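Fill-in record for OLC1v1010476C1.
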Amino acid sequence: MLQSRSFVKKTKQGGVRKIVREHYLRDDIYCGAPFCKVCDVSGAKLSDAPSPLLVVDTNVVLNQIDLLENPAIDDVVVLSVVLQEVNNKNISIYNRLRSLCSNASRKFFVFSNEHHRDTYVKDMAGETPNDRNDRAIRVATRWYQDHLGGAVHVLLLTNDRENKRKAIEEGISAETVESYVKSLGQPELLDLIVQPPSEDVKMEDVEDLRPSKRKVIYTEHKPMSEITSGLLRGIFHQGKLRVNRYNPFEAYVGSESIGDEIIIYGRTNMNRAFDGDVVAVELLPQDQWQGETSIAITNEEDEEEDVHLPPSSADDAPRATNLVQGSTGAANSPPSRPSGRVVGIIKRNWHSYCGSVEPMPMPAGSGGVVHALFVSKDRRIPKIRIQTRQLDNLLDKRIVVAVDKWDVLSRYPSGHYVRTIGVIGDRDTETEVVLLENDVEFKPFSSQVLACLPPLPWSVSSEDLANPIRQDLRHLQVFSVDPPGCKDIDDALHCTALPSGNFEVGVHIADVTNFVHPGTPLDDEASKRGTSVYLVERRIDMLPKPLTEDICSLRADVERLAFSVIWEMTSEADIISTRFTKSVIKSSAALSYVEAQARMDDSRLVDPVTTDLRNMNALAKIMRQKRIDRGALTLASAEVKFQIDTETHDPLDIGMYQIREANQMVEEFMLAANISVAQKILDHFPQCALLRRHPTPTKEMLEPLIRTASAVGLQLDVSSSKALADSLDRAVGSDPYFNKLIRILATRCMSQAVYFCSGELSAPEYYHYGLAAPLYTHFTSPIRRYADVFVHRLLAASLGINRLPDVFQDKAQLTNISDNLNYRHRNAQMASRASVELHTLIYFRNRPTDTEARIVKIRSNGFIVFVPKYGIEGPVCLSKEGGWLVDEQQQRIKKSDNSIYYGVLQTVQIHMEVVEPQPNRPKLQLTLIEDTYMTKK
């Protein structure tokens, strides 16, 4: 049966067009109940005896998704009209709902009410789309009641007063979410409910924790129409808000329209914006702009800084000394930086936050409800007001809270409890917090994903060996070089001396795409995760362990499938020819970096593997020098390595990660393979190749590095990557650590390298600044990165091995994929750093330590130091009584009598100790040991 439905839709140009949709109605769409006597129950997903069977409307899904995700809520019918409406209104919640519906352990069933003969509803004259959808929900609920014949109680959940009234009039059982949850007898579930505005707590009941005669008032956000107009006219500026990690009352908005960062001082000027929000900013009058040196490092006692002063008030700015004194003794103003205030939110970045609760000093509300303030572990997030019925049980727990709204009259945003993670301070609890805060998917792989794997034990088959697309390279002496204990080995090498005096050099990469096929649950899951995540004591895999540690891992003495890049090179590392092939290899040795380095250094060893290692290392050194000569940067980072107790998993020792020649050798050939593959896939697919670019840093980005270098007598040429590389090579002082510190600072001025689709940009924009390479991609780690899986498919298609998947024809989807890869890659980096910070706290908890540090940034009430021995960075606050002044030109902070000063890159002695100035917020406090390292003029 065919039904037509028409409606009008407004176009982007402001016109109106008529949309006609045809509905094919059927009577064989099943209800999903296993006890139904009419339907085919083979695909039934609901319980045998649900009590009751729930039907939810759209607003319940949009507002109560945290409640629906709780295991206590089950046997839910999700109507197709609801699914579509949620998809139109909030894609994030839609994805969470789809995940619930596809989860085999949850009883959520999607019913296609829009295509069922008995539940389809026609449009009525004068009826709004919202009213039509509400009517469709009621009709489907009534159908379930009649269809199941009273065998189960069918209940419509709706917080829409009018929808509930009409349902009851039509003989349908309907309740509000709160009423239903109360009937379950689990009071803690009530904390998950998002209260509608009419049920909001009165502001005067939960006002400021401190006595205050002033009302806390924010400015209303501008409507989107006004924001759009203001952006077009240059009145407003758009960008992402980034809150200072050391001071939550200061933020930055990178603005392309003015080519600089706009600094936002104080919560009033932030105007209820969260870190990561895309905001519209209005510049303040220029006489209210401030210099960078006025950015203060806050102490914990500043946490409750006044945020309700008018934007023009100087009191709203950080409490800092703004006077800059030059070498002549004259007072000068610091260079002004654009300063502004947020006037609107273009895109919210609200998500779930992890932290703890503190009680508010007020009597309990009705029904055992008390008000509490949630304190996020991330200091950039403001406190969040919640209601709870289980405060006593939560005081020693890490919990998850979601934000619901932030009213203009409220000092704090309002939110609701989502779930408890575990006891505060427990390592597993705190590690889960790290993963949740960085949106890392760490749940076990589903049965559908695991069903995609080949059965174990797996081995190379005779069919694999006979396949004409796959070359048998088992005769080659292949070996791998990886970090110690590595099990997910996805790259191996070989180097064979040729009679001509040249070398055949091969990079062999695990053939992951032989097992991960497009469109499968395994591929979908890998695409969503984007990358493996490496924490201090564990690894969160992108692919299941049977693949990463067995089937695809290029372990020693086992045959494995690979995708190989093979060059013929001269002894001067000039590439004569390049070929690509699927292959079968058998690794002869799986070495660690330490083992490979020891072999190369031991002149007594002359075995074939050691000889090949030395030949490869000699070629790698030449290749590296050629890259540097082209302008590639040799930067440095503060990578930390922990020695972990195998039983307790506690850190036993901490230090900087050591880079050896063996590391650099492997890196050089991986870079070469990635560049060769990038050229191959771009030649064949100029519109859809997945590449990786590193944007050239702007002059503004490099300014802090130039200023720091100048303060210590160095002149850096930043006109090109080659000029900067040469300048960094010349930046040598008497201190052996000086050059590395300059390179670390240079690294921090760089933008992030990103994935992109070749069809989106012009060829000059493909450039990778750090590598000085016109083309680059990622091919060498498909076990750990989904980008490499994507590139393997492109390379196979370019060789005629496989057909190019359909996704490569969809530019919008390719953009979404590259955006997700960039998002996941950055989150993985942040999670790794947070894991290091967590284990640093654990290590120093009972180990107060005195050590040397280097000053890397000067601020108006202290400085930020880097601790070389431990790879740690943090703020050091100076006493308020010191009368400190900042000398912008000389990059130093000094006492007003000029008796003492501290300069950038100077060595100071500090004391490191874990303290807890606020409950449940431990931090590593760095304190200056003044008597030892004060520099006197």
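KEY FINDING: The chain has five domains: 29-197, 224-347, 350-424, 447-690+776-828, 848-936.
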